Amino acid sequence: MLNWGVISAGGIASVFCNAMRFSKTGRISAVASRSGVRAKELANKFSIPKHYSDYESLLADDQIDVVYISNIHPAHAEWTIKAAQAGKHILVEKPIGMNSTEAESMIEAAQQNDIFLMEAFSYRPHPQTKKLVEIIQEGRIGRVQMLRAVFSYRSDFDPDSRLFAKELGGGAILDVGCYTT
User: Fold this and answer.
1) Distances, alpha carbon 28 to alpha carbons 42, 99, 110, in Å
2) Under CATH, to which class is 2-120 assigned?
């Protein structure tokens, strides 16, 4: 049974913790947030035994095998590299990095420390995606020359939201642009 640590206690972390309740191979053993209150709230909500008010303490926890990194986009590279250096396997929320240089640095840190690193991208392993790939590879719809995809949602403008604030990695391209590429 893998012991998971969750870095950040935001909305997607709650979704992840809820899904992990059904895992037969892992359990959430700790959560960390820059806000000790939020870490404690998430820990209480999902009966997570440990909570930390900083990410370093979670990475120093010898009981944690793998971390789920769900903090703001611009922090993914820093904490992925630190997790790799701490010997933790990593599932990092999309986008893996803010640019290719960050992503390459993250991959290099994982390789240097013999760490499994994966971007949390829900549609890659989705059964519909796998079926589409199968249909294309079998040539059942002919040779695909072009594909057009659209993905959108409505959100009220909030300048402090991670969806809009540039310093938080906001913007449609990093948030949902990956779903159509």
Assistant:
1) 11, 29, 22
2) alpha beta
